[in-house]
């Protein structure tokens, strides 16, 4: 069995968010021990340090977008960095930063999959659908728009970062844990046809059945990307995020999600975003994130003799 080659890329910015603080996320995750945690599972981990980019100007929205030049700069930089690691056959883990960064990471991953003939599947764990546009958004915060931009709905500066528009197709992404969606966004999601497993669905069928459906169709040719927004989790266990929404998954439900992904053996890239240490309690959200990453890399309560 080959040794997994993992690259950690820190992206310390909150230019896409409504509240400052996510720029401190990468260091909080390192303090919580993310590098050692992954290495314990036999991976060779390279910490690439943090990318650099423009600071947060904390300005109001212009034409429906806040901080567009800064968001573009950070995402172009991340696109390039992720591309380099994928070309070297490594598994990139992006430490955010806010969720606008998924435009850069996923557009690079989509490019790589087109080039290598891999089948891209994205699991988007989030309390929010992040499918806003300038006309739908009440805030102009671009961390509420990455899925729309990746699907080709947004300004050219963001939709064209990967060179192909749209970067991804709706059937390539499945959203889990959603429980806060704007009215216009809800209609748009239904129109585009993105598969959304919201919290009511999880409540009705359970997390195991939800994940079985979300993981359906994964095969040896699949590049599985996980985009984990920590506000996916219930704020009782993960208070350190900028936009908490009550009624999220429990600790065990979240662990089950990660364990079932690990069982596929197909994880090829990961975003961890929206950690805001300024709002956390004793780094508990960062430590929980590391705990979930351990499960993604194979930690289980018992060595399972049968599935």
From TrEMBL:
- Reactions mediated catalytically: L-arginine + H2O = urea + L-ornithine
Q: Where does Mn(2+) 2 bind?
A: 126
Q: Per the annotation, how and in what number is the cofactor bound? A: Binds 2 manganese ions per subunit.
Gene Ontology molecular-function annotations: arginase activity; manganese ion binding
The cofactors required by this protein are: Mn(2+)
Q: Name one Pfam family in it.
A: Arginase
Give the E.C. number(s): 3.5.3.1
Q: Which GO terms describe its biological process?
A: arginine metabolic process; urea cycle
Keywords, ordered alphabetically: Arginine metabolism, Hydrolase, Manganese, Metal-binding
Q: Detail which positions bind Mn(2+) 1.
A: 99, 128, 130, 229, 231
Record SUPFAM superfamilies: Arginase/deacetylase
Q: InterPro entries from the xrefs?
A: Arginase, Ureohydrolase, Ureohydrolase_dom_sf, Ureohydrolase_Mn_BS
CDD domains from the xrefs? Arginase
Q: Say which family it is in.
A: Belongs to the arginase family.
Could you identify this protein by its name?
Arginase
Supply the source organism's classification: Bacteria, Pseudomonadati, Pseudomonadota, Betaproteobacteria, Candidatus Accumulibacter
What gene is this protein a product of? rocF
